[in-house]
Specification:
- By secondary structure, this protein is of the alpha+beta class.
- The protein has two helices and five strands.
- It has a five-stranded antiparallel sheet with strand order 2-1-3-4-5.
- A hairpin with a 5-residue loop joins strand 1 (about 35-40) and strand 2 (about 45).
- The N and C termini lie close together (about 10 Å).
């Protein structure tokens, strides 16, 4: 499945990062992260799959919010956790 064909894109909303300083859960737990991902349904900021806690993926699974965008400077891509593909 690619880009415009991904049915999960209907869940994308205009959002602002809820915790622009870092991963919401890692900040609370005082744990490290590698890269940040922004949930495009609710604005949750979570850590990537290379991070020890993988909070972005956990949020997507628990909340049912499948699409994230990279919050890293210079990166402009989105990922669907359900379809495991760039969108």
């Amino acid at each position: 499945m690619t880009g415009v064909l991904d049915p999960h894109l209907t869940m994308v909303r205009p959002v602002r990062p809820r915790t622009p300083a870092g991963c919401e859960e890692c900040l609370r737990l005082n744990t490290p992260w590698v890269h940040l991902r922004l949930c495009l349904t609710c604005g949750h900021v979570g850590c990537c799959d290379s991070s020890p806690m993988r909070h972005a993926r956990a949020h997507a699974a628990y909340q049912g919010h499948p699409i994230v965008q990279s919050l890293e400077s210079g990166e402009n891509w989105r990922w669907c956790y359900v379809d495991e593909t760039f969108v």
